[in-house]
Amino acid sequence: MFVFTDYEQFVEILTQRPFKLSNFAISRLNEQAMKYLTEIARNRFDNIMLTLETMPRTLLLVIRNLNTIRAIGREHGDPVNRYMVMARIATKGAFISRDTRMCDRLAGVVQLCYFEFKLWYDSVKQWTAKFCWRLLTLLGRVPESLTDVMDHHVI
Question: DSSP string spanning 102-146?
């Protein structure tokens, strides 16, 4: 049975971006940031390749399909927040069980509400980052060399 021991690495493989972007401020997204990302990838490449080699083929197919969906979504302007949709589907039955006591069900509802709040909060953060990025781009505060990279890969 295949089990991920490093959930952050699995998230990075699925989303194809660093799990923790908190180290990046918009004012510092320059050559230094790109060097940092390259160095992280270089240091973790062997571990990522080992993970991909031991991963079940069906899971690799899912990841490949996600890449196709990601590309199609990008072509259409990302009309659907696929991360939020996938998170909801993946956790659909995890919070509420019909075979438990009433207090367990209530705890499940509370956890589900907290999960939905976290999804909403994350989408607000992403929207704010995109808005700020576009505003800075319109004001000419972003170098041309970073515009395409940031629009398609990080934000």
Answer: HHHHHHHHHHHHHHHHHHHHHHHHHHHHHHHHHHHHHTT-S-HHH
